[in-house]
Amino acid sequence: METTKTEGVLSETAGNVKETIGSLAGDVGMQLKGRAGELRGKAQQICADTTDLARDAMSSSPLAVLAGAAAIGFLLGALWASNREG
């Protein structure tokens, strides 16, 4: 997953540069595209970190992760069933 995090950092940096260039040039469209790229890079980094955390949790205590996943699945199913009845 390190490549995904690296890609996120690069995307964030490129977006930041594009946003700065757009700001200097007075191009609002370029600023918005740069900001979007920056946010996409940050989101990609967060996803990579979350994946690493989930992998570490799964390897250290798989039964606890399985119980948590079952509880979340049960809650989502209960919410979905209650919305279908109402």
UniProtKB/TrEMBL annotation:
Stored Gene3D superfamilies: YjbJ
Transmembrane regions listed in the UniProt entry: 63-81
Keywords linked to the UniProt accession: Membrane, Transmembrane, Transmembrane helix
Domain CsbD-like residue range list: 5-56
Pfam families (UniProt xref): CsbD
Similarity comment: Belongs to the UPF0337 (CsbD) family.
UniProt-recorded name of the protein: Uncharacterized conserved protein YjbJ, UPF0337 family
